[in-house]
Amino acid sequence: MLRTLIVSTSFAIMALSAQASPEAEALIAGTATQISNTQTGAGPLTEALDIQAIARFTLGKHSRRLTEDEQARFTAAFEKFLVGTLENQKNKLKNAKVDVIGSVDRNEKDSVVETRVTQKGEDPTTVRWRVMERNGEWRVVDVEVLGLWLAIEQRAQIAAILDKPRATIDDAIAALSS
Description:
The chain has 178 residues and is of the alpha+beta class. The protein has a single domain, classed as Tgt2/MlaC (Nuclear Transport Factor 2, Chain: A), CATH 3.10.450. The protein has helices at residues 2-19, 22-36, 43-48, 51-59, 68-93, 150-162, 169-177, and strands at 97-107, 110-118, 125-134, 137-145, 148-149. The chain has a five-stranded antiparallel beta sheet. A hairpin with a 6-residue loop joins strand 2 (110-118) and strand 3 (125-134).
């Protein structure tokens, strides 16, 4: 009896997972294809990212003390850093097979989409993409590879810089450039 309950519950959960976030999964499937295509520039990648939200998250508590100009300068530097980082990783995805293997809805506007990246001759890697819907549009707000979430890691690094006495936003921007 208990075994039957466990099995039926597992099937129900698998069925729900397969139906979760079709828009979010479609965004990631398309973005992954664009990233693995060496002919594609940064355009599709930046369109998939919510750079404003990621930059704001990265600044954390420090965003409240910054002027609009400082926030804009940080966001521009962060976008350059983020796109550069992802472009550098693009070569690792060259000719890779990227499969969406499922998603988990955190709520109706927030999902984590899991992909499996397989390159010839290498073990598959799991990459998770956190996507959020704002104003009817799904956008990527974080990426996790090898247990590290990019935005969360950047937030910790920027906080370590801005928590120092007399640190300025220029110090954080300089760190993104190095």
